[in-house]
């Protein structure tokens, strides 16, 4: 069937995929046809984990997500929730990124979970002052927007550490149980690529 440009402004006879790559991009589409969320990646950790890393950040097992931005102008929206707890000491958590085996903090990231500029990529910290408070996990949320300026694969990870000689826990219920019946938490990490 021949391709016909009609007087009404329509085109007929064009098969699916008939236009060459690159002749139509997001900016040439109507606003309502533009995809703002380009992709979503998520992971969850249900296990009860223990943090014994003193004064040094270490990865939380199972809370890492890889994403490959489709455009260097894209932003990555980060949303995470931890159910973590400490035993009579401070427990810290933060978000970092890894590209090509190199881990770094997100210096440009805007932490929308806190108004404290010093928090940066940290969730903040937990501190229990007596044994009576131990094992009462606190769901702690973090949201932020990062501009990676790359189309290389990026792995975002959550790390944690303890200050002092005590222990931190993830997803552990107040009665030391290890099943959902004990009211355990589920920790999550979600990434969304937002068109720039």
Name the features:
196 residues, elongated, Jelly Rolls, seven-stranded antiparallel beta sheet, five-stranded antiparallel beta sheet, mainly beta
Describe the structure.
- By secondary structure, the chain is an all-beta fold.
- The protein has a single domain (35-194), classed as Sandwich (Jelly Rolls).
- The chain is built from no helices and 14 strands.
- Strands 3, 4, 6, 9, 11, 13 and 14 form a seven-stranded antiparallel beta sheet that branches. Strands 5, 7, 8, 10 and 12 form a five-stranded antiparallel beta sheet that branches. A two-stranded antiparallel ribbon has the order 1-2.
- The model is unreliable at 110-120 (pLDDT under 50).
By CATH reckoning, the class would read Mainly Beta
Give me the strand/helix succession: EEEEEEEEEEEEEE
CATH architecture: Sandwich
Find the CATH topology.
Answer: Jelly Rolls
Number of helical regions: 0
- The coarse overall form would be elongated
Number of domains: 1
Mean pLDDT: 76
Uncertain stretches of 5 or more adjacent residues: 110-120
- Beta-strand residue percentage: over 45%
Q: Which structural class should the secondary elements be placed in?
A: mainly beta
- Give the helix proportion (percent range): under 10%
